[in-house]
Amino acid sequence: MFDCAIIGGGPAGLSAALVLGRARRSVALFDEGKPRNRVALASHGFLTRDGASPAEIRKIAHDELAAYPSVSVRESRVEEVVREADGSFRLTDAAGESWRAARLLLATGLKELLPEIPGLRELYGRSLFCCAYCDGWEMRDRPLALVAGNDHTFHLAKTVFNWSKDLLICTNGYDSLEPEQERALRERGIRIDHRPIERLVGEDGQLSAVRFADGEEIARAGGIVAERLRQAAPFAERLGCAMTPYGGIEIDGAGRTSVPGVYAAGDAACIMPAQLVVAAAEGSRAAIGINEDMTDEAFA
Ligand SMILES: Cc1cc2nc3c(=O)[nH]c(=O)nc-3n(C[C@H](O)[C@H](O)[C@H](O)COP(=O)(O)OP(=O)(O)OC[C@H]3O[C@@H](n4cnc5c(N)ncnc54)[C@H](O)[C@@H]3O)c2cc1C
Predict the structure, then answer these.
(1) Same domain, 102 and 247
(2) Same domain, yes or no, for 38 and 121?
(3) Which residue minimizes the CA distance to atom 2 of ligand 1?
(4) CATH number for the domain including 21?
(5) pLDDT tens track for 56-95
(6) What is the 3-state secondary structure (H, E, C) of 100-127?
(7) Last residue within a domain, chosen from 178, 210, 225
(8) How many domains does the chain contain in total?
(9) 27 pLDDT exceeds 90?
(10) Which of 112, 131, 229, 284 to probe ligand 1 with, by most ligand atoms within 8 A of CB?
(11) Atom 12 in ligand 1: which residue has the minimum CA distance?
(12) Cβ(34) to ligand 1 under 6 A?
């Protein structure tokens, strides 16, 4: 019986494991190793690690965790979580092995659904990104494409404009812009193209042009693609945790969900802003919540 099982070994789960390990709690952390940012060569905006690769940050975190003997990290995918009659949790992994824990932390992150456009996957994480705060600085003042993929094109265009004034919005079937929004964007010199995209053209990960269905190409040197997000794992919904209107797991200030003993941290709960440093901070906060609740229980 572990004090806490953590599902997810991204910054949220790893940070929670560190804080719980230091609080002398026994922790089993399960991670199948598919973090959202794995396609990126470099991560930005994490103070002291600006520009480090996701793999490098992960390795440092694992090395730090190795100093805490009560933390065990398992590279496996959790398939099932059951809440037992005594309030503890039974987890079963893909190999059929099972574990029990008094508390459960969901740090499973999100999965993104990208628009299905030929060429996009080869460029994603190299010169086409989903977040201006993460990668806008590297693309500043370049001719950029904003590839629509959800209903937030106006918001995204206003944000990306901060990094480059040479902006081409490709709605590609996502026509969420109101006429007055289109006007406000065009007034600032932002181009809006409603033609379907045939392909994103580029080599070695570098976008060079957007090719439209009529064959015309417009040169671009980078871009932002709007994705749709969903939970990477089904456990919150299966356990009956309340969800936010944005599809995140609802938590209080200590990471507690609506189900006793279940906590959540990172992208899976907060959705936006999706940032490594925010996820790590949330993991720390949930770990403190878990430790405080267990301590109170021991003295009750
Ligand atoms: C292309 C891209 C680039 C980005 N660049 C930046 C950047 O430069 N700077 C920045 O701050 N943020 C960046 N982000 C955002 C950042 O990656 C996320 O905010 C952050 O990774 C969230 O951390 P997390 O711990 O909540 O989830 P994740 O990092 O996604 O980790 C969740 C982990 O849970 C595991 N998991 C899920 N289900 C299971 C299961 N059933 N069993 C076992 N394990 C499971 C996953 O495999 C994964 O390893 C980027 C995102 C993308 C997509």
Answers:
(1) yes
(2) no
(3) 37
(4) 3.50.50.60
(5) 999 999 999 999 999 999 999 999 999 999 999 999 999 9
(6) EEEEEEECCCEEEECCCCCCHHHHECCC
(7) 225
(8) 2
(9) yes
(10) 131
(11) 275
(12) yes
Task: Please state, in angstroms and rounded to a whole number, the distance separating the CA atoms of residues 210 and 221.
Answer: 10
Instruction: For residue 35, report the distance from its CA to the centre of ligand 1, in Å.
Output: 4
127 and 43 inside one domain: no
What does the longest C-alpha to C-alpha distance in the chain come to?
Answer: 71
The domain containing residue 144 runs over which residues? Answer: 115-225
Over residues 195-211, the pLDDT tens digits come to 999 999 999 999 999 99
DSSP 256: B
66 and 215 inside one domain: no
Distant-in-sequence, close-in-space partners of 300: CB < 8 Å, separation ≥ 6? none
Same domain, 171 and 148: yes
3-class SS shares of the chain: helix, strand, coil, % to 5: 30, 30, 40
Neighbours of 218 (CB within 10 A): 16
Q: What is the 54 CA–ligand 1 centroid distance (Å)?
A: 9
Q: Side-chain half-sphere of 41: how many Cα atoms within 13 Å?
A: 9
Mark whether 235 and 161 lie in a shared domain: no
Domain boundary among 206, 225, 244: 225
Q: Which pLDDT does position 36 carry in this prediction?
A: 86
> In 31-88, where do the E strands start and end?
71-74, 78-83
Q: Whose CA is nearest to atom 13 of ligand 1?
A: 275
Q: d(Cα 81, Cα 157) in Å, to the nearest integer?
A: 41
Q: Closest Cα to residue 148, out of 130, 127, 125, 121?
A: 130
Q: Which residue has its alpha carbon closest to ligand 1 atom 51?
A: 37
